[in-house]
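Saturday, quiet lab. Running sequence design on the structure tokens for the scaffold JK sent over.
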């Protein structure tokens, strides 16, 4: 992927023991949202592995085009629901 979005976490927060890279992406997204930077919050989510059920719920609420526009990773849902789930 491209250059990482602006970080809202301190280096200490990013280096906490036991955090997976995916957890850091989610924490960055939450921190950006809390700071009022919605665009950066969504940019961080583009890097995160999102559970299939969450993507399916987002599709139901916001639509398939929303997921595409945000550039979210869909491999978990592709595996769970099949490759064409987003267009069904």
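Result came back. Writing it out in full:
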């Amino acid at each position: 992927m491209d250059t990482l979005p602006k970080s809202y976490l301190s280096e200490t927060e990013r280096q906490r023991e036991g955090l997976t890279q995916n957890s850091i992406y989610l924490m960055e997204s939450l921190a950006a949202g809390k700071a009022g930077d919605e665009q950066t919050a969504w940019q961080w989510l583009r890097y995160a592995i999102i559970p299939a059920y969450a993507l399916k719920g987002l599709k139901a609420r916001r639509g398939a085009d929303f997921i595409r526009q945000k550039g979210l990773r869909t491999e978990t849902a592709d595996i769970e629901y099949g490759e064409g789930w987003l267009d069904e």
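Notes for JK: Residues 1 and 45 are 12 Å apart (CA to CA). The first helix runs from residue 11 to 14. Ask whether to fix the surface positions before the next round.
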